[in-house]
Amino acid sequence: MSSDAPKREFEPGSVGLVETRYFNFAQPPGELTLECGKKLGPVTLAYETYGKLSPEKDNAVLVLTALSGDAHAAGYHADDDKPGWWDVMIGPGKGIDTDRYFVICSNVIGGCMGSTGPSSVNPETKKPYGLSFPIVTIRDMVETQRLLIDHLGISVLHAVIGGSMGGMQVLQWAVSYPDRVRLALPVATTGRLSAQAIAFDEVGRQAIMADPDWKGGDYAGTEGPRRGLAIARMVGHITYLSEQSMHQKFGRRLQDRAEYGYGFVPDFEVENYLRYKGDAFVKRFDANSYLYISKAMDYFDISRPTGSLRAAFVGVKSKFLVISFSSDWLFPSAQSRELAQALRLNDAEVVYTEIKTDYGHDAFLLESGELSAIIGNYLAFARDGGDRKGT
Amino acid sequence: MITDFELPRGAGMVRLGPEDRVIIELVPEGARVLDLGCGEGDLLKALTVIKGARGEGIELSDACIQACVRKGITRVHHSDIDEGLANYSDESMDFVLLTNTIQVLHKPLQLIKEMARVGRKCVVAFPNFGYWRVRVQLLLGGRMPKTGRLPHEWYESPNIRLLTLLDFREFCRKAGMRILKEIPLRTGGLGRTRRANFMPNLRADVAVFLLEKEAPK
Predict the structure, then answer these.
(1) What pTM, to 2 d.p., does this model score?
(2) pLDDT of residue A385
């Protein structure tokens, strides 16, 4: 083989080879003031872009990530076998069509995927922040994204889209920057985390913090709380699936054995699957980031400043497509319905749909003709589908 | 004459039934309209385009909401209207529409009262089970009738509340609704749609009623 590797071929509908970029800002003394009152700086935000920004700069679509998502939403990095996490949705001719839109996927602060988080080095101490990293909120995440959008020279986003925690950021965008978001698409999300969801987050955090390898968050240079983080992911993963989908996927099937092991070995396929998911997660995610980001979700309550969901959306100007999944029990449809109604009572233009699926909360990440179609059609047609002819 | 029309930029056609055309004429310019069971949104879209209405829909089928979005409709909510209209405030709409839907409801009396609460005026359109072809099938054939408007076998029909014009008038009295207009239509056969003002309960296959709440005595 010659030294010139053959040009890599990608399947149709792929954005092809992409790279993560990094936006650096908030250099001291211009640190970012966070919602908790503390300051953070300098800050790096990882992001990727796909497609071309139009000369009018009016075709930008901002995609926001869930708890464990990174900026790599579509296409392939040079060393990737698998494409980005929302490749089923983003690409030429796909739901978020990169032939028409300039797609920006922004990561979040507090994470561990290239944006500033607890595993980043604190420039003052030259050591990783660990638990000295300030608590960040969804509003803080959105504030950093707003700075990124300013940096890219975009004044109005055609759309802001995200599932789960990404949907929370969408809501925060629409409330914080009503004039800068034309279409807001919160998917499988909620306006305020429920007691049940907070409870699951807390189980995950306790699993991490109970692991002796966590060492009060000061585990840099070691393998860290691998068992704790894996358990947190296992618990989380159960909440992302549904009773039906687990039954279909695993049933009571045994893993590599014909008979019960009569012991505490992994007998069942579902056990094996969760262990695999837990272990895979540990390889790519930082335990402290899990604590920080899950806490940011727990703190999220868009109605808190005003006292009610309805009051929270006073002054929103975006049009909304609110999507829930019938079998999602982590962010049940009733919460999306409540969101949609609160928006409607503020006279916002809202489409609320519940997609029938057995795949639970994770349905938004899966290949789904229905989800791609409704997002694609909404992005294309909601713009001139206003109340009156010609608007 | 209001006709079917094509939407711009490949968004597809808006197709209207005879009762839709009547309803569009009933709705004044710029009205706030809530369409219950709006289906694929054809009537809603026509009302926004032709009458500049501020149209809003409620629909149970996600496939239908998908079709609404494709038409550029930006106000439609997934909900079961049998559960009422609790999130809609009193007199927040000029018109509340219920077209070809009353016959599938579990609680039509409850819903019509809700419609009267939310809308200043209400429009109900439904297939007439007193239509002569229906009667003949039952009388001479001795079997449950099937027509173009009621095409299902009895065992798979969503239409669980079949009614005639006479039934509906009595229903309105019971619900405390005044009938402002009654527009019986003959749409079957090859000819153009005509009004069936003579012997409507026998000759109309579909009817449109314009209603309002009776003033409290």
Answers:
(1) 0.94
(2) 45
**A381, B75: Cβ pair inside 8 Å?**
no
Question: Residue A232 corresponds to which tokens in the numbers above?
Answer: 């947190």
Domain-embedded: residue B35: yes
Angle at B85 between CA A301 and CA B76, to 5 degrees: 70
Whole-number pLDDT of residue A5 = 57
Say if B65 is an interface residue toward chain A (CB within 8 Å). Answer: yes
Question: Does B141 fall in a domain?
Answer: no
Q: Tens digits of per-residue pLDDT, B81-93?
A: 999 999 999 999 9
Q: How many domains does chain B have?
A: 1
Return residues 352-371 of A near B (CB < 8 Å). 352-356, 370
Q: What is the domain range of residue B12?
A: 5-128+160-213
Active site includes A79? no
We report the CATH number of the domain holding residue B123 as 3.40.50.150
Output the pLDDT for position B189: 64
A328 assigned to active site: yes
Candidate list A106, A119, A164, A242, residue with the active-site label: A164
Mean per-residue pLDDT for B22-40? 97
pLDDT tens digits for range B106-117: 999 999 999 999
Task: Name the minimum distance, in Å, from the CA of A323 to any CA of chain B.
Answer: 10
Residue A228: what pLDDT? 98
Regions of chain A short of the pLDDT cut 50: 1-3, 385-391
* H or E segment to which residue B119 belongs: strand B119-127
pLDDT at B216: 74
ipTM: 0.93
All structural domains of chain A, each given as residue ranges with its CATH number in brackets, are 21-192+301-381 (3.40.50.1820), 198-296 (1.10.1740.110)
> Tokens 């589908």 sit at which residue?
A385
Question: Between chains, do B77 and A378 touch, taking CB under 8 Å as contact?
Answer: no
- pLDDT for A391 equals 32
User: Which positions in chain B touch A370 (Cβ < 8 Å)?
Assistant: 62, 66
In a domain, B25, yes or no: yes
Q: Using one digit for the tens of pLDDT, what is the confidence trace for A266-298?
A: 899 999 999 999 999 999 999 999 999 999 999
For residue B69, list chain A residues with Cβ-Cβ distance below 8 A: 321, 351, 353, 374, 377-378, 381-382
d(Cα A97, Cα A85) in Å, to the nearest integer? 16
The DSSP code sequence of B166-180 is HHHHHHHHHHTEEEE
Dist. CA B150–CA A256, nearest whole Å: 55
With an 8 Å Cβ cutoff, are A344 and B87 in contact? Answer: yes
B70: closest CA of chain A, how far (Å): 5
Give the pLDDT of residue B25: 97
pLDDT of residue A4: 57
The reply to whether B140 falls in a domain is no
The reply to whether A80 belongs to the active site is no
Distances (CA, A) of B212 to A46, A271, B98, B110, B178: 58, 61, 13, 15, 5
